Amino acid sequence: MSSGINHTGWACPICDQNKITSHLMTRVGGIGAYCGNGHTFNDMEQLKNSHPRTLPVPKPIPKPQEGHEEIRVSVPSKVRQDLQAKFGNTLPENVGAVLRAVVDPRTIIVSGLDVQQIESWTKLTILDAGTLKGAIYSLTMDLKQAKENLASLEATRNGKGITVNLDGLEEAIQQRADMWGITNSEVVKQITDMGIKNGWV
Ligand SMILES: [Zn+2]
């Protein structure tokens, strides 16, 4: 351990006699073990043979990262249990990440209930912020396409275009469209134009 002080995992036998629980420690480079109440045991072998009471070694408190600070929060016990169940050992990191995200004034939190409604309206599965963004993009593109189709349909109705049944001619028109590098509709327009100007019809 970097502090140079280690827990032996034993309780001080003298303190134990006084009904006080005190951890026996060793110091790196030092001789024997000692407790916080000034009892020292220079002969480790003898100490071991006296079978001192064992104590769980407390986990070292992790040092906060450089530039980080600890904050204490109080939540209902149920929330604490649910957080533990969801994140396990990575709970502090995850809570830290959530707090960093909510600091951004543009961050929004979408509740599970809202996600359910969005899914039922869109028939899309929303797993996270990424899929929500993807779903909105896809719907926006669909709407844009639908508006363009509608505008084109309205232009036809308004006399700027006519609807023609070209049943059986699709392949021939497509071949020319590919050859000339223009759309099917432009092929039909050009052929009709040529026919009228040249007196074919
Ligand atoms: Zn002691």
What would you note in describing this structure?
Helix 7 (170-180) packs across helix 8. The chain has 201 residues and is α+β, with helices and mostly antiparallel strands. It has a four-stranded antiparallel β-sheet. It contains eight helices and four strands, in the order E-H-E-E-E-H-H-H-H-H-H-H. A hairpin with a 5-residue loop joins strand 3 and strand 4. The protein is rod-shaped and about 120 Å long. The chain binds zinc ion. The site of zinc ion has 7 residues, from helix 1.
Task: Give the SSE map.
Blueprint lengths: L4 E7 L1 H5 L5 E5 L5 E2 L5 E2 L2 H6 L27 H11 L3 H13 L8 H11 L6 H32 L9 H11 L3 H14 L4
Antiparallel strand pairs: 1-2, 2-3, 3-4
Helix pairs in contact: 7-8
Features:
201 residues; alpha+beta; four-stranded antiparallel β-sheet; 8 helices; 4 strands; rod-shaped; binds zinc ion
What Rg, in angstroms, do the CA atoms define? 39 Å
The portion of residues forming beta strands comes to: 5-15%
How many helices in DSSP terms?
A: 8
Low-pLDDT stretches are none
The gist of it:
With 201 residues, the chain is α+β, with helices and mostly antiparallel strands.
